[in-house]
Predict the 3D structure of the following.
Amino acid sequence: MKRSRPHSRRLFLKTSTIAGIGLGVYGNSFGFSSDQVINSQGKKVGIIGLDTSHSIAFTKVLNGHKDDQIYLGYHVVAAYPFGSKDIKSSMDRIPGYTEEIQKMGVEIVSSIADLLQKVDVVLLETNDGKLHLEQAMEVFKAGKRMFIDKPMTASLKDAKAIFEASKRYKIPVFSASSLRYITGIEKIDKSTVIGASTFSPAELEPSHPDLFWYGIHGVETLFTVMGTGCESVVRVSTNDTDVVTGIWKDGRVGTFRGTRTGKHDYGGTVFTQNGNVVLGPYAGYEPLLLDIVKYFETGIVPVQPEETLEILAFMEAADISKKLGGKSVSVRELLDKK
């Protein structure tokens, strides 16, 4: 989903305004004048994981705006490359991405412990969700704020453990897909939504539950417009397509369609009391990065733990439904399970 960075502030601000939902007014919303140069003290970002293109894309945007107000001066100064240990497609990216990020002036370190001594906040970008709990614990213990990229974890159990640690260490944390900010979202009054159907690619990775690896994008779009309250899930699955239907506690129905053939695309339709709204195209990484730096600055998360956990429970329930031949699976029971 790599997307080139807009070449002017005017275009960027237009893009972020269109794509943002619940983000408020950017640019001067933190009290900086348009001509003010940001003091970089306390704005040093560290990256864990150079096995995803997100690490490179995020660094290009943040470091490209280091000296203006858009991202409040937050910039990447150090990175720990690893990283997936058993996913070849991810492991093979590390050498190339390491070389690329070094060219942007980012120091490569040999451990997470070394990284944490050099930075103020962390982007946990490791592509392998199985490693996130272990890596996140090091960051919590160091007292650093942290954004966890998709998939937050490779299991609902691990995600619960991360949020429990977040409470214990009193360090808020959040995870989100950039598809939470897909174009069209800003047109929707959530109180009027009566249902939705979203779609995204849903490529599979054997080490992760099916939708955790890539279907998360379209599922997160679905929850962004529907909100929490999904009670049960039914999944129809073929080699090429998944269709997952959720029933919300108020009777609303939300559907995610995951594709593995044809053109990879993202979008959907939201059904509201006032008419239907078409979602798309993809709006890029910038709106998500704006929310990340706002969180780094304030400690206020834009996505609540309850919503993230329900998203993961929805996807885990979809896996169980598939194994049961398409039977309905309770999302609430998974959330309540210890």
Observations:
- The CA atoms of residues 231 and 332 lie 6 Å apart.
- Confidence is low (pLDDT under 50) at residues 2-38.
- The two ends are 35 Å apart (CA to CA).
